[in-house]
Write a structure and sequence with these properties.
mainly alpha, Growth Hormone, Chain: A, 2 domains, 77% helix, globular
Length: 399
């Protein structure tokens, strides 16, 4: 998206006439629903596997497939739709999410269920690629970090409330009811977007050349590299946070759930704290996030050997990682002000790929080395990201 694309056409002016906070809230509800839909099957693997006669490992494809599809769809959807009004695109993608979850709820077999999850992946990648940079089109420049934090607050809320509540619903009413409920909620979000989202004309379509051209921008390269390192490192360690808490910190298994809830709440707090700090010092804020992550994970080996130390470090980890999405998305907006949509779609693709890669690499390390090794890897990746971020300190767009 070029500078002209970041304009809601108001007599040629570059800024919106007024901040559209209802639209920001509706988009945040969309991100909440999308992340809930992506991760909900984690809590339903056993039920789905038993009902459709597949192993839990095979049932895990319900999570893997949409993540990989989302990584491909993020840069591809903006290219394929050309100059389509982004309002219509978001409405169409939410409609696709509604239909996909209907198909999931009614799937007669596992093959149909996985096919429906492919559609979920398309909706996730396309919606997130557009929504992640939408704040610049909905609010005044001074409010962009706050609006971006609200949009990404939907991600944290999904982890804290959406997935647990959806899993609970599935346990009491059946996994098909859980997917049907997601479909109903998607329809509600679709109607909300229809009511409050203004026209978002794309004056210049995203082309493959524009996407490729982003890698000539040093700020974009650093943002993509930092995203890859931080997200890969985080998920290589966080995927195994339960055994870390139990085996290294000596925390009772019954306390793991509440502590992970605390991690999610801390992440939501970190999201909004980072959003406020980014308005003043974007470069320093992202650097602090990376440095905190680089310290928090390896410190488990020194200070996390007890219940209190393990719990405190987990909350610090959650606070820092909660600012990653809003921090790095704001970074991309700042360093590519004339191509926000193109840069954001690349960022979303790398983010989703890094989730899967981190979990995969972490599993290999835990099986072949030790549990402690994934904490060292997570810290090392975050430290490398901090060094990359520090190297961009002279970028005028980040001051």
């Amino acid at each position: 998206m070029t500078t002209d694309q970041s304009v809601i056409r108001t007599g040629g002016r570059r800024d919106p006439e007024r901040s559209r906070w209802p639209a920001v809230t509706a988009v945040a509800l969309g991100t909440f629903l999308l992340v809930t839909a992506e991760q909900l099957p984690i809590g339903l693997l056993t039920a789905v596997g038993s009902a459709l006669s597949v192993s839990e490992g095979t049932a895990g494809l319900m999570v893997t497939v949409p993540s990989l599809i989302a990584a491909v769809a993020a840069p591809l959807v903006p290219v394929l739709v050309g100059g389509m009004d982004r309002r219509l695109l978001l409405l169409g993608l939410m409609g696709l999410m509604t239909l996909a979850n209907v198909a999931s709820a009614m799937a007669p077999g596992f093959a149909v269920l996985v096919a429906s999850r492919v559609l979920v992946g398309v909706a996730i990648g396309g919606f997130w690629a557009i929504a992640s940079g939408l704040a610049v089109r909905l609010v005044a420049p001074a409010n962009v970090p706050r609006a971006t934090a609200i949009i990404f607050g939907g991600v944290g809320a999904a982890n804290v409330f959406g997935v647990p509540l959806g899993t609970l619903l599935g346990e009491f009413s059946g996994w098909r009811v859980a997917f049907a409920t997601l479909s109903g909620l998607a329809l509600v979000v679709l109607l909300a977007l229809l009511a409050v989202l203004p026209p978002l004309a794309a004056s210049q379509p995203v082309r493959p050349r524009l996407l490729a051209g982003q890698f000539r921008n040093p700020g974009v390269r650093v943002g993509i590299l930092a995203t890859f390192l931080i997200v890969t490192g985080h998920f290589s360690a966080y995927t195994f946070v339960s055994p870390v808490l139990q085996k290294l910190s000596g925390i009772d298994e019954r306390l793991v759930g509440p502590l992970l809830f605390g991690f999610g709440v801390a992440g939501m707090v970190g999201n909004f704290v980072a959003g406020a700090a980014l308005a003043r010092r974007p470069h320093r804020t992202v650097l602090v996030i990376a440095v905190t992550l680089a310290a928090a994970m390896p410190l488990y080996l020194l200070l996390g050997r007890g219940v209190i130390g393990g719990a405190v470090l987990l909350i610090a980890w959650g606070l820092a990682f909660g600012g990653v999405s809003v921090g790095l998305q704001t970074w991309m907006i700042k360093v590519a002000p004339q191509a926000v949509e193109a840069a954001s779609s690349l960022w979303v693709a790398v983010f989703n790929l890094s989730i899967g890669l981190g979990a995969l690499v972490g599993g290999v390390i835990v099986d072949s080395l030790t549990l402690q090794a994934v904490l060292w890897l997570g810290g090392a990746c975050a430290l490398a990201a901090a060094l990359a971020v520090w190297s961009a300190r002279a970028d005028e767009n980040l001051r």
